[in-house]
Amino acid sequence: MELGMIGLGKMGAFMTERLVRSGHRVVGLDRDPAAVQRVVEKGAGGVDTLEKLVGQLKAPRAVWLMVPSGAPVDQTIEQLVPLLAAGDTIIDGGNSYYKDSLRRAAALAPKRINFVDCGTSGGVWGLTEGYSMMIGGDADVVKRLSPIFQTLAPGPEKGWGRVGPAGAGHFVKMVHNGIEYGIMQAYAEGLEVIRHKKEFGIDLLQVGKIWQFGSVIRSWLLDLTVDALSNNPTLDGIEAYVTDSGEGRWTVIEGVELGVPVPVISSALDARFRSQDPEPFANKLLAMMRHEFGGHAVKTAAKE
Known about the structure:
Layout: E1 2-6, H1 10-21, E2 25-29, H2 33-41, E3 45-46, H3 50-55, E4 62-65, H4 71-80, E5 89-92, H5 98-108, E6 114-121, H6 126-129, E7 132-136, H7 139-144, H8 146-152, E8 160-164, H9 168-196, H10 204-211, H11 220-231, H12 247-258, H13 263-275, H14 281-294
Parallel strand pairs: 1-2, 1-4, 2-3, 4-5, 5-6, 7-8
Antiparallel strand pairs: 6-7
Helix pairs in contact: 9-12, 9-13, 10-11, 12-13
């Protein structure tokens, strides 16, 4: 099969390379000419405009978007639509909000342009390990594109599947990432407790390696944690600042709207928010409240 790939960051580039290795024809486009050149060196085609990309694909065309969620997706689709024809398909493989995917599918339907939302997990390891893909869209369209998904997945019949109509793919990926927040937080908190038990002199890296085999909490995230500790056991030079890319927020909001409690995911999200504030005002207020009602000492900040 052939595919247009828009957005050649790490994941887009690795997906392109994996497809090319398996004999698919891929035409890549990115705002960065160097990114296009890198995939060309791997055997893909490269263009510098949407017009050229669409022009090099045979109908019915399939164009995969790997661009940041939000406005960039809408802008790219808006520019693509006049160049496409009935029966063509736009695949959004980024971390878009599922309600945006519902809106986009509805807007494209009258033009008879198919919209497939593909929640994609695997990060930079997908090139060698394959990608987990949660797909939403028309069943016949997904079936027609299955050679693409089978190539990108860990195996032809594993790690991917159509989970429902348009919007369902990004919905499942949203919850997947919320779960990821909780698992990561649990590992971080548990290892922090061990680290603070100074009198035992426990080696965190050794503990992680023990847990990797036979333990009920072994996982790929643990493997990555062990890799990180192997490279930097004390995490020197790493700032205690954890970003959140949106999916955790959306999962918590969905839980509220559905009346489903998600305390673990919500707590993990709160921890990320707290890490992003170098001087949490709420903590200062707590200190002053204790001082006001009980005369408790307040630790003052050093003046520069």
